[in-house]
Each structure stands twice: as C-alpha cells, then as structure tokens.
Amino acid sequence: MTNSDEFTPLEIDSLGEDWPRFHEHSLLEAAVTEASRELQISREMALMSAFGAMATACQGHVDVELPTGHRRPTSLMLLTIAESGERKTTAQNYFFDEIYKSNNSAYHDNQIAQNRYKQENHLWNIKKRSLEKQYSKHLTQEKNTDANTLQQTLTELLSAQPSPPRSRKFLYDDTTPQALVQMLYENISNGCLLTSEANSIFSGKALEELDKLNTLWDGGTVIVDRISRESFLLQNARLTLALMVQPSVISRFMDKRGDEARGTGFLSRFLVVKARTMAGQRTNKLLSEQPKKQEFNERILHMLNTQMGTDRQILRFSEHAKNAWFEYSSRLESEMQENGLYFYLKDHASKLLENVSRLAAILHSFESNSEHDTQIESSTLEFCWKFSRQCSSHFMEHLADEPQLVTDTNLLVNYLLKKAYSEQHHNNQSSASLLPENQRPGVQTSFIPTDIKQYGPGCLRGNVGSDRLMASIQLLTKLGHILKSGGRYDFSESIFTRARQEMRNGEFIKINSLPLHSEQIRENHSRGYPSVNYLIISKDIMR
What we know:
This protein has 543 residues and is of the alpha/beta class. The chain is 49% helix and 12% strand. The chain folds into three domains: 9-102 and 187-306 and 316-398, Rossmann fold, CATH 3.40.50; 107-159; 404-542, no CATH class. The strands form five sheets. Strands 4-5-8-3-9 form a five-stranded parallel β-sheet, sandwiched between helices. A four-stranded mixed β-sheet has the order 2-1-10-11.
C-alpha cells in the first residue's frame, strides 16, 4: 500500500486541497487536470463530474465482486454542493459531451420511430375495426364458415399489433422516482439522473419515494403495483445519480426531510463533495483545444456504443488489492465503535467501502485497454479509497452532525493550546524571531490524563468522560500532535517530526483548532533554526 506521505503538503495543495491523484497518464487524471486548469473549476468538482460520466458509460457493462464474494452494481449516487457561479454546468458539459450527443441522437431517433409507429398503429386500428364489423355481421347472420375464417384473420391481426418503439434515451433531469422507474422499464434499463441545478429535485416531489432509488442503487427488483394501469417488475436495471446543487437548497432539504432521508438510508449511499469556491479567483484567458477532453469523451463514446451482453462482466480484485480491502474494512469497523468517528454515522460508514469498490471497478473498466483484464489493482483501489474518504469528510461536515469525537478533540485542543500559550508567555520562550515572517513554530505543553479529568473540558472530566478523553488523545496521536512520554503526554500545536503520523489533519478529518497538514512544513535543520518539529506557515505561501 502506498505510504500516506506520497505527496508533500505543498504538492497536495497545488493539486486542489487534499484530493488524490491517479496515474499521471491515465485518461481520468489527464482530463481532470485539464478541466481544472482550462475551465478554472475546482479539482473535486471535476472528479465528481468525471466519475458521473464514467459510471453512466460503465454500469451497463460491468459489475464488481467484493472480496466477500458478493456481487454489486457499478452505478453511483453523486452529490456536488457548489455555490452559484462555480461553473457546475460547464463542468458537466466537459465530461458529458458525448453522453449528451448520444442521448440527443437517441431522442431524435425515437421521435422518428414514434411517428412511424403512430402511422402503423393507425392503419392497424382501421383494419381491426373493419374486421370486427365483418365478424359481428357474420355472427348475426349465422354464417359460421365465414365467421370462423374472419375470427382466425382477426386473431392473427391482434397478435401482430405494432409495439411502441423502445427508446435508447438514458438521461433524465427533472423527474420523480416513479417516473424514472417507468422510463427505465419502457426504455433501456440503464439511465442517469443528471442535473447541474438539482433545486427542483431536492425541493419538489422527486424524493417522495426514496425507497425506489435505494433499490435501484442496490441493483434489486422494483415492484410497481397499480390499479388503473398495468403493473410491472423492473429487474436488473442500473441508475446513476449525478446531482449538483447549491448549499442553500441542501440546507432547506436537510431541515425539512434530512431525518427521513437519513432514516431510509438514502443519503448514506451518496458520495458527497462541497466544492471549493473558485469565483473571484479566476483569470482571463482563452481556452485551449482541450485534447484530453476529446480523448476522455472518445472513450465514453466507445463504451456507449459497445453492445451490451445479456450478462455483465464481473470485475474482481487482485490478491494484493483484496488484502488492502480487508484492511480498509477493519479500519471502518473500528471507527464505528463507541467514541469512534462513525459511531453515530454507521449508516454512512456501512456503505462507504462498497462505494470505494464501485469506483475502483468503474475506473478499472474505463482505463483498461482489454476486456479480458478483469482484475482491479491495489493502486486503483487505494486511489478510490482516498477519494471516498475525502467525500466522507464532506458528508460529515455538510450532511451530518459533527462526530462527537471531533467535538471532544476540538475542546481538548483548545484547552491544551490555552495552557501552552500561558506557559510560553510565563517563560517568555519563543523561537519565532529566528524564522521567516511567514513561518512560526507551534506552541507545546505536556499533561497527564488525571489533570484533564480534573480541570479540563467538562465533558472529558471524571470517570464518565474518561473513555472520550482517551479517544481524543488517541486521535491526536494519530494526527502527530501528541507523543506519549512515560506517564505523561507531550502536545504540540504543530506536528511532531518524530511522530508516527497515521492521519493528516484536513484529509478526511478536520480538527478546526489545529492547523491543517497543508498549512505546515517540515523543519529544515540545516538552516540553523531550533528544533521545533513542523513549522506553521501562513496561507500566502500556499498560493
């Protein structure tokens, strides 16, 4: 498995906060990088748009087998939250160019077929009425021989009634789950609910039947029982949701229907991104020819035009990838335990690794040059894990209440920072004067848990708060801000150089009271500065 220190903080930030990179020469990475640069959109919005297009093209061709042996679809539910002016439509147009064209072509072909069908059906009805009159007349006159002949002719005509054309249209916008199910049944059974302004969906009736969307994501059978119209079963269908919406719309939706959406498991199936604001930071420049857009969309078109078999191809993980998959599974299980990050978000955590697996299958299928290459590599799985963990942090921040562990840890950090600054002022110790203006050391202090239990934040005091306190200490240790020294603990506002850092602040989890990992830089001892672990740098240096 690739070490988490693969990129330096400055490299990660220049790529777009902490969003991971895939292989440099991959279609995905090249297109996302080009789109971010040329369209001046955030990297995370480009990634979400790309995955939406890739899932739409791949879901009809491949399924993924989890290392547990369970077979899963490769459709996705994607939600990008972005302010007005962040070029949501522009992003979708870049990655969905050939999908739009294919869907428009299918729509026009269906219009022609519908007109032909209406003509044929009209002529068929004329013949039917004529035969019915003749048959009725011969029955009245008791001409049995002629009646039998007409009956046979009428039976043959009824069996030859023209059928309505089956549209190849697969993109849907402002519609309801019930209508979606109907269209997937009447048209091709692979669709995409796509919109760059999902206001009507989150504020209208489209989410009144969330169970149908859940079933479609699961790959199950949707049963539609009706009185006035024919009932039907929708089986083996695939539906990807690629939705973009403004924060205010999501906020209203969560206030009104958030509990319902969480309770049904609807929101837990989403990969969520809150896109960084780019408006106001863009420069005036002419667009290039965008060759990577063409290559990306050519691959999309190839997959759309590839004939779908009766059975989807099953992609499986390599042995190395399986080991990594089980490691991720164990980590999620531990994080769902009491005082863990996902203790109150088990619904979300239980779907996260399946989303990772779906992403990996989609990415493998999209990038593969051979249909016989059915094994997903560990590097592909790792990239999708990092991407999904970032999405998970956005889910926690924007669609769910802050985890108790994060709240507790922020309270503990505030207490320790206050203590450290007080001690620094008392001792009048500071090495900041030896550093450049845009850098400073983090303050430090030490403590024993008993002191926190007596004088620390109320929720962490006494035996009642003991488990929560130790969980926060453990998290800060993983982030590199606490080191155990005998019976005491050393705390630093900046990362300890000698810490065995398992997590980075700002990547997946964010402790607001501490500087982000991307806002720190490793000290260079050769410069002659005192040993102060990592240095906290001003955000100006990141630009």
